[in-house]
Write a structure and sequence with these properties.
Helix content is 33%, strand content 16%. The chain has 243 residues and is α+β, with helices and mostly antiparallel strands. The protein has one domain. The relative contact order is 0.13.
């Protein structure tokens, strides 16, 4: 028996290549979202499946692109090295092509407003990510507290619009300097985006290929803006901070 057959598949391999053996429609949300069980070589993994054909039409986002944006957000997280979006891929499912994202075991009663003190550093990363990805739908329940206290960022279908329209619940850090290690990652990304396409790292090359050119250009402009301002923006009167 070969080593390939004896080794157990990783969670990412199960999600990429396994068979969806069961699926259940999630009760909330305007788009069809399914909790699926995927099996490969006797191993199973739960995931969230969002089919393209289950997307509700929107006036400000092109139809049939939200699943692509879910994957693009994962790629951006990986390119930056921030590891805040659960593993996501695009693949076929019971209702056609869509995004499939690793399910995060979490307490459904927890959300942004119930997070305990000590989460500020993780929230700063996600707040910075939202500026760059142009997250237009950052709700309280789009932050999941996983194992070991790690906060995961989910629901990124409404991202990367060419018009700046960030909408978020995270205003804790208004006028606060963006941490240097985050600015360093953004600076590297901005420099890479000016490189020839054939010289880009594979994940970044895939990201810029997924998005239309006007959205890639807008991504560059947002990076320029963040790197010039170097502080978190905010709204008047919103100055609550987390320790």
């Amino acid at each position: 028996m070969t080593a390939e057959l004896t080794n157990e598949p990783t969670t990412t391999e199960i999600i990429r290549h396994g068979e969806i053996v069961s699926y259940q429609l999630a009760p909330l949300g305007s788009n069809y979202t399914f909790v699926v069980n995927i099996e490969l070589k006797g191993n199973e993994s739960l995931a969230i499946y969002k089919p393209r054909d289950g997307e509700a039409p929107l006036w400000d986002f092109p139809s049939g692109t939200l699943y692509i944006r879910e994957y693009a957000a994962y790629l951006l997280s990986e390119v930056l090295g921030w590891d805040i979006v659960p593993f996501t891929t695009i693949r076929d499912g019971p209702y056609g092509i869509g995004s499939v994202q690793q399910f995060v075991e979490h307490d459904p009663k927890q959300n942004y407003y119930t997070l305990e003190e000590g989460c500020a550093d993780q929230l700063r990363v996600i707040a910075c990510f939202d500026l760059v990805a142009n997250s237009t739908d950052r709700k309280a329940n789009h932050l999941l507290m996983g194992n070991g206290g790690k906060i995961w960022s989910i629901d990124h279908g409404l991202t990367f619009h060419s018009d700046m329209k960030v909408r978020t619940v995270i205003w804790d850090f208004s006028s606060e300097p963006i941490p240097q290690h985050l600015l360093k990652s953004l600076t590297k990304l901005r420099e890479q985006l000016d490189s020839p396409a054939d010289s880009l790292p594979s994940l970044l090359k895939e990201l810029v290929t997924l998005l239309p050119q006007e959205e890639v250009d807008a991504l560059k402009h947002r990076l320029d803006w963040v790197l010039e301002e170097r502080v978190f923006p905010g709204l008047p009167g919103r100055n609550r901070r987390r320790g």
